Amino acid sequence: MGAYKYLEEMWRKKQSDVMRFLARLRTWEYRQLPAVHRCNRPTRPDKARKVGYKAKQGYLVYRVRVKRGDRKKRVAKGIVYGKPCGQGINKWKAISRLSPLGAILYSLMPDNDDSLDSAKNITSTSTPEEQQAVRNLRNIAEERVGRKCGGLRVLNSYWVAQDAVHKWFEVVMVDPFHKCIRDDPRINWICKNVMKHRELRGLTAAGRKARGLLKKGKRATKLRPSYRAAYRKHSLMRLRRFRCDRSRSEARGWAFAPPSPWTDAGCSHIAVPTVVSGLESPISPKWRISHRTQSRAQLNASQGNNGPMADLVATVKELQRASPEAKEQWGLYCEAKGQGVRDPAKHEAGFILTFLDQYNSGVRFNSGVRFEQEPREPSGGEVLADLFKEGQRRSSHWRTAWQYYCQHYGGGVNDPAKHEAHFLVAFMDFLGQHGHLALTLPAPMAQSLPAHSSGARSAWAVLGAPMAHPSAPMNSFQRPRANPAVGNAVGTPMPDLYRGSVGGRAAVVAGDRGKDSLVTRIKSFQRSSPESKEKWWVFCDSELAGARDPARHECSVLELFIATYQVP
Questions:
Q1: Where are the domains of the chain?
Q2: 460 near 446, Cβ under 8 Å?
Q3: pLDDT value at residue 428
Q4: Among 88, 139, 483, 548, which one is most buried in terms of CB atoms within 10 A?
């Protein structure tokens, strides 16, 4: 015999000398403690494990003291049938209307019986404890500890001890917010919100027993889902209207009124008797007849199918089914002016009439033809972007300056349409500033300027390469600080465009102008046609080791290519 089985047998034999002695000691100890207190461990480990207790974190045990009731039997009007079991009982326990016996008795009480008025008013004169007399004391103990520990959930309970006045129960509580409980798939169901205060709603084992849900079979037909629900269901009288098939009713001579928006959705077709020669038909209904339940949306749709819009929609659909050409023309028309929506029911009547007029007049459109859209006023950024693109096409120097400007200030994005308007304006201001210096300040004067002045740096960058000037001032030049008054996307100052050292970027921007013209001619030749680009690539692969950038080669090599292929 195992340990738990041994404990179970000991608790089963409560009248043994050992158990009676332990019961007296325990009841004396429990009387000294509060009515609801927490236990360090369950008094009955075998019973606790049976009801779901686990010796792990998240499980708690509370002991509750409940006062015992009297020995009065729950009988109606205090009448006991039989002796000596009911002998000596001169008053009876109040019967609640919510109890099984109270619900049955209350439903059987006639309204004109004055002798039962006191029994009907039991619920108004009795205390809450008496109104819930049908419940057992274990359920009451669970409710008390559930109200005291609102953050815990009641799992189950069991009897521990009793004396002549009180009964003690131990209630197993679960902490729904403990990690061990939430991670355990066998108990985490109690963490759901619907399990809050399940003891107050009769969902525990004691509550289900008090509700009579432990019974099965025919004797439990009035118990589920509850006494009150079963009583209301059985006391409710339903009178259904007589319904019949419309076609069968018409065959019998019954006429149906047309649907009206003022009639009920479920009674849209009412059968009325047919009148012949001023007399009612011998076959007439005795009840109000409804054909079928129609929703309000179906009723509105049936009324809207008879208008001119429905005729236009039907015309377009029939035209598409009859002619593939008409279907194609309707699709092109919708893509151009109807935002790609081809369902004629989703367009206005004017839209459909315009298409029908054009189609009937013989107008046909090709798949590549796009209808003219409504003119849109271009924004300032779009106008500047078009201007910059035209400048790149017409001027190679503009294109080169724009490329280097975008490489340093614009994140390497050369498309003017992808930049803001203020960025394009800043580039134009940058060119205007340096062009003004180049036109107003000659080269000898720029050389005589102080080495650290911004005007000297700007003039030297525009007028020529640093190698064209003496090297003494060049060694003392610093990086230019006069940047355009714009920033990049994050608002940080933009880097320098020109560098003041020999062999730096200034030599590339303002280098040999003869070579620049050759490079420009070759690039223009490549853009003229794919065949021209293929000629340059073949020349680079065979003669220049695959280097296709014209700026990386000598002038003699570029002149050889121009003379060989007669580059304009």
A1: 3-71+134-234, 76-130, 246-291, 308-360, 380-511, 516-565
A2: yes
A3: 87
A4: 139
